[in-house]
Amino acid sequence: MSEDQDAADARAAYAAYGETTGGKNFRGEPMPEWDGLGETIQRAWMAAAAAVRARAAGTPKT
Predict the structure, then answer these.
(1) Taking the model in full, what pTM does it have?
(2) Which of 7, 10, 21, 35 is geometrically suited to a Cys-Cys bond with 45, CB 3.0 to 4.6 A?
């Protein structure tokens, strides 16, 4: 999977999280825009999206 696809999936997951929480983070504060997350948090969302994709494909990442 390309990094572009990983980023697109991560953005979609982040947006879904925001839709579910009313745009609030785990502290109840407004969620930053994707570009305001910083590289470490963006990569964490990318890893989470890749893990879900792998699980759905039947090849879980370890």
Answers:
(1) 0.84
(2) 10
